[in-house]
Every structure is written in structure tokens, then in C-alpha cells.
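Regression test case RT-17, inverse folding.

Input:
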């Protein structure tokens, strides 16, 4: 499994890539493998400020639906339109083309409290 060192991670299996005061968020390689074939991503929080650890959407696989949790308080700016037409991108490229949302961070320093790649690997026993 792949866990890019430049990203931050949550115990809920989201990753965060900070770009200034914005960030891109998706689910980890571990999470997409656990879910299996992803068929739909539902995000209805664009324009909303979502508090840390609150649900910002859901991700649906063939056999289950899982909540997506906001890693740090942020306003949802955009949803990856490519995954509307091709949700399987979350499976095939979770850290690239399969990103889920772009957000404006309420406090970029909050990201420092998230897990490093090594800490996340420990968390999932990888």
C-alpha cells in the first residue's frame, strides 16, 4: 500500500494535502481497498463550513456506504467533478485523480495535529 510522506492522515482514513490556506482531501489507499469497488460519492456540503470530525459527505461502494469526515474545520470549496462520472478513480488513484474535495482551511496550523504517514501506518498496522 502507498502512503505518500508529504500528506497528513486521519484515524478515519482521510488524507490531506495542504496548498497554502487551502487543502485537497481524499481517502487513503487502505480505505479504498477496504471499501472495494466505489460506485458513488455524495458531497452536499459545497459552500458550507464543516467542523473537524463532522461528516462532509458519503462514499458508496458495492456493499456499503461510509461517511467521510472532515480532518480539520474547513469550508468546502469544490468537489472533484471527475469522480461524478468515474467514481472508480478513487480506487485506481486515491492520492491523485481520485481526490474528493478542495477546502479552505479555517486554521492551516490545525493540519499539524494530524497523523504523519508513519503514524498512520502504525494506526492501521501496515
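Golden output:
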Amino acid at each position: 500500500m502507498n502512503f505518500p510522506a508529504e500528506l497528513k492522515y486521519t484515524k478515519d482514513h482521510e488524507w490531506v494535502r495542504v496548498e497554502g490556506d487551502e487543502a485537497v482531501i481524499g481517502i487513503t489507499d487502505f480505505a479504498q481497498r477496504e471499501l472495494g469497488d466505489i460506485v458513488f460519492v455524495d458531497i452536499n456540503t459545497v459552500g458550507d463550513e464543516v467542523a473537524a470530525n463532522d461528516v462532509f459527505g458519503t462514499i458508496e461502494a458495492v456493499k456499503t456506504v461510509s461517511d467521510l469526515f472532515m480532518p480539520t474545520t474547513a469550508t468546502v470549496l469544490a468537489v472533484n467533478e471527475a469522480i461524478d462520472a468515474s467514481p472508480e478513480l478513487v480506487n485506481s488513484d486515491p492520492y491523485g485523480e481520485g481526490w474528493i474535495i478542495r477546502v479552505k482551511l479555517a486554521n492551516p496550523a490545525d493540519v499539524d495535529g494530524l497523523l504523519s504517514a508513519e503514524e498512520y501506518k502504525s494506526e492501521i498496522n501496515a
